[in-house]
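Before the break, one more example. Copy the sequence into your notebook; we will annotate it together after we see the structure.
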Amino acid sequence: MKVADRSARSRVLVLGVGNVLYRDEGVGIAAAARLAARELPGVEVLDGGTLGLALLCEVEGRDDLLLLDAVAGSGKPPGSVIVLGPEDVEKGLRVCMSAHQLGVSELLATAALTGKAPERVAAVAMVPASLDLGLGLSAVADAALGSMVERAVDVLEGWGVATSA
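Here is what the structure looks like once it is written out:
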């Protein structure tokens, strides 16, 4: 078995999280796939699914972490795209869909305990229209997905990432 060289990995990680089995809870995964297709230099895009603390090795030691996710409880209408700063991400605004799933706040807290938390953390999230059991995004989430990706690009550009040729 070959062990990956972690020193050669990108300093910027975009992590799509969520559960694709619950319709719009998978919006972070869908946004990550669209962003990955852009092949941004110096940016690694991963599908984190519902892996929770299993993502620790991916998060540790990164300079920047951008999370893509669904978020409930914002008071905004479904399909709204929200950019969350580090304070909001740490508050654990993540929708947990099952008892075994640990949220992003726990992942970041554990990375901080090891002294290897990313220096900058932000999230781009969408208010879900449907969290029903089923595959595929709702029409509302699908229509807003492009806006979510563009907001993610805006965050990356703010961090100095070159996003255009």
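The CA atoms of residues 153 and 163 lie 7 Å apart. The chain has five helices and five strands. Try to locate both features in your own notes.
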